[in-house]
Amino acid sequence: MGSAHGIDILAERDSQRWVIEAKGSGSLQSMRVNYFLAVLGEILQRMSAASAKYSIALPDIQQFRNLWSRLPALAKERTGLSCLFVRKNGEIEEIK
């Protein structure tokens, strides 16, 4: 029997809820497109509360930034999805 996979990061304060799905950089550049598509699918499946905030978190590398920028603005707007780009030094930049 396989193990159940849950939310990668769930932050809650008072009545606020932030759901974050994260992926690493992978060892091959060709894997990153699949990682990006996978993390999008995972976060979409978690969107069950209209009041929650939803984000994906990815390493801050140009390929992931390019993939995020190619995601249509309408899709980002309708889902309210943002992307957290995580730098090697731990800094995080949120892009909507």
Describe the model.
The protein has 96 residues and is of the alpha/beta class. It has a single domain (9-95), classed as Trna Endonuclease, Chain: A, domain 1 (3-Layer(aba) Sandwich), CATH 3.40.1350.10. It is built from 3 helices and 5 strands; from the N terminus they run E-E-H-E-H-H-E-E. The protein has helices at residues 29-46, 62-70, 73-79, and strands at residues 9-13, 16-22, 53-59, 82-86, 92-95. A 5-stranded mixed sheet has the order 1-2-3-4-5. The longest helix is centred in the middle third of the chain and has 18 residues, at 29-46. The model has no long low-confidence stretch (mean pLDDT 92).
Which secondary structure elements does this structure contain, and how are they paired or packed?
Blueprint: E1 9-13, E2 16-22, H1 29-46, E3 53-59, H2 62-70, H3 73-79, E4 82-86, E5 92-95
Parallel strand pairs: 2-3, 3-4
Antiparallel strand pairs: 1-2, 4-5
Helix pairs in contact: 1-2
**How confident is the prediction overall: mean pLDDT?**
92
Unreliable stretches = none
Mind summarizing the main beta sheet?
5 strands, mixed
* Proportion in β-strands: 25-35%
The top level CATH class name: Alpha Beta
Please bin the fraction of helical residues: 25-40%
Return Rg in Å: 13 Å
**Counted beta strands:** 5
At CATH level 3, the topology is Trna Endonuclease, Chain: A, domain 1
In whole angstroms, the N-to-C terminal distance is 38 Å
Count of all domains: 1
CATH architecture: 3-Layer(aba) Sandwich
Number of helices: 3
Instruction: Give me the secondary-structure category.
Output: alpha/beta
| SSE ordering | EEHEHHEE
Quaternary structure:
single chain
Q: Strands across the major sheet, in which order?
A: 1-2-3-4-5
Choose one word for the global shape: globular
